[in-house]
Amino acid sequence: MKSYSGATFCFGIAALALLYGCSDIIDRANIFGSDEKVVVAEVGGRKIYLSDIDKEAQRYSPLFKLKEIKSPGQKAKLKESILHRVVDNIALEMEALRLKIPVTEEELDDEVHSLLGEYDDAKFQLTLAENKISFNEWKEALKKGIMIRKLVLSEIDSKIKVSEPEIKSYFKSNAEEFKWPERVRARQIMVDDETKAEQIRKRLLKKYDFAKMAKAESQSPDAADGGDLGFFGRGQMPPEFEAALFKLKVGEISEVIKSIYGFHLFVVTKKEKPRAMTYDEARERIRKILMTVKREKEFKNWLRKIKSELDVKTYPLALSAHR
């Protein structure tokens, strides 16, 4: 499972900004009236110019809705925020390079496929063109993101421990937060023909074993498990399924229900009323909560240390002088 923290998202967000909300991307004209010669920060001797902040703002424009920002005060706060992101990213990148954190081609390819998925290639290429960025530049940004993520995993996550007493203490103090909603467990049979579904239902009503029928007739991936769908609560199933399932009694066979996948029959095998989770049921969720809290604290302290070693300098007057 991937673990992310704070500034580690920045490169990924910039890349994702190219995929979503593209119609909101602003014109290439400078947002803040940038000057390429104005230095607004230095990180380990590497200069950051006002024009760099402008370029980063354009990457984030779909997320921040920059077109709607008219107030000079709001623009100034946004510039400060973006400057801090850029400084943090560069500091993390330098630390990853210092520690020689590797990124393999396989890792990079996996990340590309994960982000793009089934995204329309023509639209993606158009988005890159509109933002005057090449596919290789986009991949390089992703590579930096992976490198930073691995750095954080190595330097932060691998060193954080959550003890059993801590988990038990949290559970004791916050037990009200951990409750199961109303849930049902059900089996299904899915076929692609309504007449066949009706015939199967007639056999089931004569007490034919539902699980055996599912294994023999169902075309759903869960057929091998006798159509077992496991437990689920409200909002986890398509509305047409949910409406039927939560009304059925245990052991009752549903009517034939049509969906985009085919024709379905359901039987509810168990119902659970809302109840409090046991410690064992809540344990992993609590562990993740405590990990997140510790990670954020450790990450801030660790990043502060890295930046102090790199002698980071920011020049707020230079930033605010150009609006």
TrEMBL record:
How would you classify this enzyme at the top EC level?
A: isomerase
Q: Which InterPro entries match?
A: PPIase_dom_sf (IPR046357), PPIase_PpiC (IPR000297), PrsA_foldase (IPR050245), Trigger_fact/SurA_dom_sf (IPR027304)
Question: Which keywords does the record carry?
Answer: Isomerase
Enzyme Commission number, as recorded: 5.2.1.8
The protein's matches in Pfam families, at most eight in alphabetical order, are given as:
Rotamase_2, SurA_N_3
The entry lists its GO molecular-function terms as: peptidyl-prolyl cis-trans isomerase activity
User: Where is the PpiC domain positioned along the sequence?
Assistant: 181-270
User: What name appears for this protein in its UniProt entry?
Assistant: Peptidyl-prolyl cis-trans isomerase PpiD
Q: Which organism is it from?
A: hydrothermal vent metagenome
